[in-house]
UniProtKB/TrEMBL annotation:
Class in the EC hierarchy, top level: ligase
Function: Allows the formation of correctly charged Asn-tRNA(Asn) or Gln-tRNA(Gln) through the transamidation of misacylated Asp-tRNA(Asn) or Glu-tRNA(Gln) in organisms which lack either or both of asparaginyl-tRNA or glutaminyl-tRNA synthetases. The reaction takes place in the presence of glutamine and ATP through an activated phospho-Asp-tRNA(Asn) or phospho-Glu-tRNA(Gln).
Domain Asn/Gln amidotransferase per the UniProt entry, residue ranges: 353-500
Catalytic activity of the protein: L-aspartyl-tRNA(Asn) + L-glutamine + ATP + H2O = L-asparaginyl-tRNA(Asn) + L-glutamate + ADP + phosphate + 2 H(+); L-glutamyl-tRNA(Gln) + L-glutamine + ATP + H2O = L-glutaminyl-tRNA(Gln) + L-glutamate + ADP + phosphate + H(+)
Organism: Paeniglutamicibacter sulfureus
Keyword Oxidoreductase included in the entry's annotation: no
InterPro entries reported for this sequence: Asn/Gln-tRNA_amidoTrfase_suB/E, Asn/Gln-tRNA_Trfase_suB/E_cat, Asn/Gln_amidotransferase, Asn/Gln_tRNA_amidoTrase-B-like, GatB, GatB_Yqey_C_2, Gln_synth/guanido_kin_cat_dom
GO molecular function terms listed in the Swiss-Prot or TrEMBL record: asparaginyl-tRNA synthase (glutamine-hydrolyzing) activity; glutaminyl-tRNA synthase (glutamine-hydrolyzing) activity
EC numbers, comma separated: 6.3.5.-
Entry-linked NCBIfam families: gatB, PRK05477.1-2, PRK05477.1-3, PRK05477.1-4
SUPFAM superfamilies: GatB/YqeY motif, Glutamine synthetase/guanido kinase
Family affiliation: Belongs to the GatB/GatE family. GatB subfamily.
Protein name in UniProt: Aspartyl/glutamyl-tRNA(Asn/Gln) amidotransferase subunit B
C-alpha cells in the first residue's frame, strides 16, 4: 500500500521543481431521442427506472441495435476535433462488475475508435494558443446512476445503502481522450478548464449534446502526473474522476499538482489510482488502484455488426458542421466592434446569442450591449438569477429602443418600462400606455410647468436673460417633477427660450 500525505506543496514552489503532464478523458452524453443500442427514450430527469428496455437492463437473449444518429453525432464530434474518421470500426465489451452496469460489461470501442488523431487549439489568457492533441473519440454507453444514501458522509464508503436508476443506462456517450499534454507549466489548471470549456462549447454548437455539466452531460476525468524538470520519463498519473464543473476541473488539477509534489518530495511514490473530487473541501481522496492494463478483458461485441462509414456520408456530415465556436467568437467581436474586455464580459455573462438576436431584430451592437450588460444585468443581479432567466426577449429591447429613438420615452423612463415588462405587465408599448409613461412634449402641458418653474425661480430667469443659458438647467428639476420625469428636455429648453424671446 502506498504512503499518503495530507501535505501539499505550494503550487508555485511545486512547479519550480516539477513539470506537470496532463491528459483528459471527457465523456459527452449525446442528446439523441433514444439510447445507444435500444429504443428506450433518452430523457433526463424522468421518474427513475421508467426509461428502460430489456436491452439496457442486459436481460438474457436481448439483441442491441446501433443508433444511427448517435454514430452521426460521434462522427461530427470527430470532425469538429480535426480527427480522422475510421472507415470501419466495431464495438467491444469492457467487462467489469458494478451495480450501475446491469450487463456486467459496458459496450464501448477498444482498438478501433470511430475518430482518432485530432487536435484543438485552446486560447489561454496570456493570448497564447495551446494545441491539444486528441488521441481518440469513441462511442460507448453510459452506466446507470447510483445515489449513495445515508451514512456519515453520504459518500460511497460512508453510505448505508445505494439506489440505482437505470434511465441513464445505455445513454449514448462519446469519450474524447487527449494525448498526453506537456508544456502547460503553471497554466496547467487554466488549460484544463479552458480545454473542457472548449469541448463543451463545441458539442453545444454541434447540438449533439445538451452540454450541461451540472447535469453530467459533460464529465471530465483529469489525469495528472509530475516529472522532475529535465526528466524524460513521465511520472505516474492519477485520474480524478467525474469532475463536473469548469471550476472544479481547474481546482482538481491544481490540487493534484500540489499533492503529487508533496508525495514526491517526501520520497514516496505516487500510486496509479482513480481519485474522487470533493467540491466541498476542494480536495481529492483515493479511489481504487488502477493499472494501465486494467484487466477489463475487452473482446469484440459479437452481437453488433461493424460500423462502416462511406466518404459520402462523412462529407454529408461535414457539411452539417457549424462555424467553429472560436472562429465565430472572433467574427462576432469584429462585427460588433467590441473591445476584448467588452466581448469577454458578454461571453461570460452568457448573452452572446441574445445580443446577436437583438442586433438581428434591429438594434445597433452598441445599443444591444448597453441593455444586456447594463439594465438587464442589473435587474438579474438584484433578483439573484442568471441574465437569461429574466426572460427578456430581444424584441423587447428593439421596441424599447425605438420608443426612445421616436422620443416617446426617455432613457430613464425606458429603464422603468423594462422593469414593468420583466414583472409581466406586457410589452413596452403596452406598459407605456397603461402607466401613462410617454414623454410629455405637448406644449400646453409643458408650457404650464415651465411657467410655474420660472415664476418660482426669478433669479434663474434673470441669469438666463443675462445670457447665461446654461442656467436653464436649474428650471429642469421642477419641470421634471411636475411631469413625473417625463418631460422632453430639449423641448423644455426651447419653450424657456421662446418665452424669454431669446434666439436658441
Ligand atoms: N503519465 C501521464 N500523466 C498524465 N496523463 C497521462 C499519463 N499517461 C497517460 N495519460 C493520459 O491519461 C488518459 C488515459 O485515458 P484512457 O482513456 O486512454 O485510459 P484509462 O484512463 O486507462 O482507461 P479508462 O477509459 O478505462 O478510464 C489519456 O488522456 C492520456 O493522455
Ligand atoms: Mg480513464
Ligand atoms: Mg478513458
Amino acid at each position: 500500500m502506498a504512503s499518503y500525505t495530507d501535505e501539499l506543496v505550494d503550487f508555485d514552489v511545486a512547479l519550480e521543481k516539477y513539470d506537470p503532464v496532463l491528459g483528459f478523458e471527457v465523456h459527452v452524453e449525446l442528446n439523441t431521442k433514444t439510447k445507444m443500442f435500444s429504443s428506450a427514450p433518452n430523457v433526463f430527469g424522468d421518474t427513475p427506472n421508467t426509461n428502460v428496455t430489456p436491452v439496457c437492463l442486459g436481460l438474457p437473449g436481448v439483441l442491441p441495435v446501433v443508433n444511427k444518429t448517435a454514430v452521426e453525432y460521434a462522427i461530427m464530434i470527430g470532425l469538429a476535433l480535426n480527427c480522422k474518421i475510421a472507415e470501419t470500426c466495431g464495438f467491444a465489451r469492457k467487462n467489469y462488475f458494478y451495480p450501475d452496469t446491469p450487463k456486467n460489461f459496458q459496450t464501448s470501442q477498444y482498438d478501433d475508435p470511430i475518430a482518432y488523431d485530432g487536435w484543438i487549439d485552446i486560447e489561454l489568457e496570456d493570448g497564447e494558443v495551446f494545441r491539444v492533441e486528441i488521441e481518440r473519440a469513441h462511442m460507448e454507453e453510459d452506466a446507470g446512476k447510483l445515489t449513495h444514501m445515508g451514512g456519515a458522509t453520504g459518500r460511497i464508503q460512508g453510505a448505508d445503502y445505494s439506489l440505482v436508476d437505470y434511465n441513464r443506462s445505455g445513454v449514448p456517450l462519446v469519450e474524447i481522450v487527449t494525448k498526453t499534454i506537456e508544456g502547460a507549466g503553471k497554466r496547467a489548471p487554466e488549460l484544463a478548464k479552458a480545454y473542457v470549456a472548449a469541448i463543451r462549447e463545441i458539442v453545444k454548437a454541434l447540438d449533439v449534446s445538451d452540454a450541461k455539466m451540472e447535469r453530467g452531460n459533460v464529465r471530465c476525468d483529469a489525469n495528472v502526473s509530475l516529472m522532475p524538470k529535465g526528466a524524460e520519463k513521465f511520472g505516474t498519473r492519477t485520474e480524478t474522476k467525474n469532475v463536473n464543473s469548469l471550476r472544479a476541473v481547474e481546482h482538481a488539477v491544481r490540487f493534484e499538482i500540489e499533492r503529487h509534489a508533496a508525495v514526491l518530495n517526501s520520497g514516496a511514490a505516487i500510486v496509479q489510482e482513480t481519485r474522487h473530487w470533493h467540491e466541498d473541501t476542494r480536495t481529492t481522496t483515493s479511489g481504487r488502484p488502477k493499472s494501465d492494463a486494467d484487466d477489463y478483458r475487452y473482446f469484440p461485441e459479437p452481437d453488433l455488426v461493424p460500423v462502416v462509414t462511406t466518404p459520402e456520408w462523412i462529407e454529408e456530415l461535414r457539411a452539417r458542421l457549424p462555424e467553429p465556436p472560436a472562429e465565430r467568437r472572433k467574427r462576432l467581436q469584429a462585427d460588433w466592434g467590441y473591445s476584448d474586455a467588452e466581448f469577454r464580459d458578454v461571453v461570460n455573462a452568457g448573452v452572446t446569442e441574445a445580443i446577436e438576436e437583438t442586433i438581428a431584430a434591429g438594434t445597433s451592437a452598441a445599443v444591444a450591449r448597453k441593455w444586456w450588460m447594463g439594465e438587464i444585468a442589473r435587474l438579474a443581479k438584484n433578483a439573484d438569477v442568471e441574465i437569461l432567466d429574466l426572460g427578456v426577449e430581444p424584441a423587447t429591447i428593439v421596441e424599447l429602443n425605438s420608443l426612445i429613438e421616436g422620443k416617446k420615452i426617455n432613457d430613464k423612463i425606458a429603464r422603468q418600462v423594462l422593469e414593468f415588462v420583466v414583472a409581466g405587465e406586457g410589452t413596452p408599448t403596452e406598459v407605456v400606455e397603461k402607466r401613462s409613461l410617454a414623454v410629455v412634449n405637448d406644449d400646453s402641458a409643458l408650457g404650464a410647468a415651465v411657467d410655474a418653474a420660472m415664476e418660482a425661480m426669478p433669479d434663474v430667469v434673470a441669469k438666463v436673460k443675462g445670457g447665461k443659458l446654461q442656467a436653464i438647467g436649474a428650471l429642469m428639476g421642477p419641470v421634471m417633477k411636475a411631469t413625473r420625469g417625463q418631460a422632453d428636455a430639449g423641448r423644455v429648453r426651447e419653450i424657456v427660450l421662446e418665452k424669454l424671446g431669446i434666439e436658441g
